[in-house]
Specification:
Helix 1 packs across helix 3. The protein has a two-stranded parallel sheet. The protein is elongated and about 40 Å long. The longest helix is centred in the C-terminal third of the chain and has 21 residues. The protein is of the alpha+beta class. It has one domain: Arc Repressor Mutant, subunit A (Orthogonal Bundle), CATH 1.10.10.
């Protein structure tokens, strides 16, 4: 967050919990997309998409100085 800027004044970037979980499993835990998909209960193709979308959101937020909000709802609510 930019120094001396209240959080309420910042633009917000919403990161879905599933995007964060997929990034964590693939990047931190070093699971394959197939392993991460099994753990999350989704297809490998979904795991391929989630971290890609999530990383773009995080990088864009860092570059523009937006606040990253993690939304706890996710694919479970969409299924």
């Amino acid at each position: 967050m930019p120094a001396d800027v209240p959080l309420r004044s910042l633009e917000r970037t919403r990161l879905n919990h599933d995007e964060l979980e997929a990034m964590y499993l693939c990047d931190s835990e070093r699971l394959t997309q197939e392993e991460a998909g099994t753990r999350m209960g989704v297809s490998r193709g979904t795991v391929q998409r989630l971290p890609t979308v999530g990383r773009k959101k995080v990088v864009d937020a860092f570059v523009t100085g937006s606040a990253v909000l993690i939304e706890m709802g996710g694919m479970d609510e969409e299924r």
